[in-house]
Design goal:
alpha/beta
């Protein structure tokens, strides 16, 4: 019998379904032999004697450990404690729902996941106040770029707004305050979320929390966190500190062993589609002067990326609208920065090839394309750039990294893979099917290695063959076991 925490010496009788499969002569079951955290041999089933603990595969399918390349870790971990508003269909319904939500220990009522761009009525201070009275009430947009507060919450936080809506930097500040829970509370939530992610085959995340997380991750690992490998980002507010402490992208974090590494500098250059602030070439409907918001000017972006390059930091540039993507690519051209374009939801045709030529990876969230397809039809109908490209980027030679932007979408790589492959998650036809990926392409964009000797033993044992699974099965892929460096982090 095997259990979570066990170190495995061999995985017996499995079929390799992901990267690494191409090195085998056939699809017959194999035994995967491990030494510590590495794969040392792959042999036909039963060909080599096994020593140590064996995980029985029973003919199941195995793929490399899955990564989610865009996670807001604390906000994702705390989402289960907040009222879920993703299915709410109007501002009036959202306000009424919040009126009966139990307050958190600090007296706040918090809801998350609303999509007001699809509502027939607009959020207003009067509507929320009438439903919630004097209890400080906060509703976080699904895209996290706006929040809706009642008067009590605005007073408590020291903000004002005629309609109760705060956007971009003000919204980020509110989220940071809501996420700043007591340390033990936050660490417990992250540990529980990590366990849930391991049950979906996740062995690594890129953490984009809007906080200084070096000490947090060292503390969590010291306290027993071991579900995933972590790369953590810093934001502009902490850039000087990161440089002063000598943090460099890719290096292991002191006090966290090999599990946590320094990630990139994150720069949010524009807004989002859901908040109607993504910076675009053509205006949003109803206002010929509204082209979205550039949070960072092209000149400032070049200066920031220059600092990052000089300090040994890669960059992760949030750029959703096509103007923001072009600005980001101009800055990378000027500075030689390396890293990722995050989201890339609207990209000019010429910039598709530029991303590849500059050696950048496109970090995209396939589920966003499905969640936003109705918004695109309403707000980006007159845009001429490509919407939510994936196949176009890959065909141009750009590297793809898939993620969720959790809690914006569920932290579940199988949902991201299914969205990338099928471009639909309901009864409707695939949305822009020309941008679909093959299963092999989607898997390759969701892992950091292969199942082959010499590679890390980060492995996922699947209950169905991903290469032949239906859309429904792929989205809900049964995961029998997850190994991180040869150690079980999940065992069904």
């Amino acid at each position: 019998m095997t259990a979570v925490g066990d170190a495995v010496a061999a995985v017996r009788g499995v079929r390799i379904a992901g990267p690494g499969r191409e090195h085998l002569a056939d699809s017959e079951p194999v035994d995967i032999h491990l030494d510590g955290d590495r794969i040392i041999d792959i042999a036909p089933a039963g060909a080599l004697r096994t020593t140590g603990l064996v995980l029985e595969g029973d003919g199941a399918w195995i793929v490399p450990g899955l990564w989610d390349n865009h996670v807001h870790t604390i906000q994702w971990a705390l989402a289960s404690e907040r009222e879920q508003l993703g299915q709410v269909s109007s501002a009036a319904e959202a306000a009424a729902r919040m009126s009966s939500v139990a307050a958190l220990p600090d007296g706040r009522r918090v809801g998350t996941g609303f999509r007001d761009a699809l509502w027939p009525d607009a959020p207003s201070l009067e509507t929320l106040d009438a439903a919630t009275g004097g209890a400080p009430t906060y509703l976080i947009n699904a895209d996290v770029h706006s929040v809706w507060l009642n008067s009590a919450a605005l007073r408590r936080e020291g903000f004002s707004s005629p309609d109760g809506m705060l956007r971009e930097e003000d919204a980020f500040e509110i989220s940071k305050r809501l996420n700043a829970v007591e340390t033990a509370h936050g660490d417990r939530a992250v540990a529980a979320a990590g366990t849930a992610a391991a049950a979906r085959g996740v062995t690594g995340i890129v953490d984009f929390d809007m906080a200084w997380n070096a000490e947090s991750w060292a503390r969590r690992v010291d306290g027993g966190f071991g579900s995933q490998r972590v790369e953590f980002a810093v934001y502009l507010s902490d850039l000087t500190r990161a440089i002063a402490e000598g943090l460099r992208t890719g290096e292991a974090l002191a006090g966290a062993g090999e599990l946590v590494r320094m990630g990139p500098l994150k720069v949010i250059t524009d807004g989002s589609l859901g908040t109607r602030t993504a910076a675009c070439s053509h205006p949003y409907p109803g206002d010929d002067t509204d082209f979205g918001v550039m949070n960072v000017s092209p000149e400032d972006l070049i200066e920031l990326l220059t600092q990052a390059v000089g300090a040994g930091l890669g960059v992760a540039v949030h750029a959703i609208g096509d103007r923001a993507v072009s600005s980001a690519l101009d800055a990378v051209t000027a500075t030689g920065a390396t890293g990722t374009i995050e989201h890339a939801q609207l990209v000019r045709h010429a910039d598709i090839a530029r991303i590849a030529r500059l050696g950048l990876a496109a970090s995209v969230q396939p589920q966003h394309a499905l969640d936003d397809r109705d918004l695109v039809d309403g707000y980006w109908a007159h845009q001429t750039a490509l919407g939510y490209p994936m196949a176009s980027l890959l065909r141009a030679g750009a590297a793809l990294r898939l993620g969720s932007d959790a809690p914006v979408a569920p932290l579940d790589p199988w949902q991201a893979i299914a969205a990338a492959v099928h471009r639909t998650d309901d009864e409707r036809d695939p949305w822009h099917p020309e941008e679909r990926l093959t299963l092999d392409e989607a898997l390759a964009a969701s892992v950091r290695g292969e199942v082959r000797p010499g590679e890390r033993a980060d492995l996922v044992l699947c209950g169905a063959d991903p290469r032949t699974a239906s859309m429904t099965t792929l989205r809900s892929m049964p995961v029998a076991a997850t190994l991180l460096g040869g150690r079980l982090t999940h065992c069904a």
